[in-house]
Amino acid sequence: MRTSKVEVVVLGLLAEEPLYGYDLIERFRTRSMGFWVEIGKASVYQTLRRLERGGLISGRSQEGPEGPDRRVYRITAGGRDHLKAGLSERVASLEPYETDGGLALGFVHLLSPSDARKAADERETAVRDLLDAIKTERARVAADKGPGRSVSTAMLQRQESLAKAELAWIKGFRSDLGRIRR
Predict the structure, then answer these.
(1) Do residues 5 and 95 touch, judged by C-beta distance below 8 A?
(2) Which of 18, 44, 54, 141 is within CB 3.0–4.6 Å of 74 for a Cys-Cys bond?
(3) 8 Å CB contact between 31 and 137
């Protein structure tokens, strides 16, 4: 059975330390994981319930200091095995570097020459904005004292490298627009 990406995230964070649902989402945020994997808040809570029912994590209610009881989750031995399988499934998978921007640029030949140049310019601006956001996230990750900080830094470096490679590609793409549109 394929391990979902939300399961990999949840199990991976719980393998580092026991967490409440809210703390798990906060750890995801402080580690800037949204820059390299997309998951929804609701899917995290659904996954926590499903993993607990399956015996892959265990949850225990604890009295909240200033509010309702909270549930702290810990990974089980079965959960560690499931995580290991999920990591193995994904690490060698060959999937395209897919973006919505790439999809749109794949049909640039259907645009007028001025709209095609504008599309390339807009994509360049978006990628430069991403690079600026990565700089901000690096500061957030540097302030995080939790486990996995160095991996988060490396993953942000990966995103930065991909963005810089795309900028170089956009430069060539823009100069080839006349030929591409024929």
Answers:
(1) no
(2) 18
(3) no
Distances (CA, A) of 79 to 34, 37, 70, 93, 145: 23, 20, 21, 21, 25
User: For the residues of 112-179, what is the DSSP string, one character each?
Assistant: -HHHHHHHHHHHHHHHHHHHHHHHHHHHHHHH--STTHHHHHHHHHHHHHHHHHHHHHHHHHHHTHHH
Distance CA 96, CA 109 (A): 21
Structure tokens at 72: 């702290």
Amino acid at 132: D
d(C-alpha 69, C-alpha 164), whole Å: 46
What is the pTM for the complete model shown? 0.80
> What CA–CA distance (Å, rounded) separates 84 from 77?
11
Spatial distance between the Cα atoms of 60 and 22, rounded to a whole number of angstroms: 14
SS3 readout for 19-73: EEHHHHHHHHHHCCHHHCCCCCHHHHHHHHHHHHHCCCEEEEEECCCCCCCEEEE
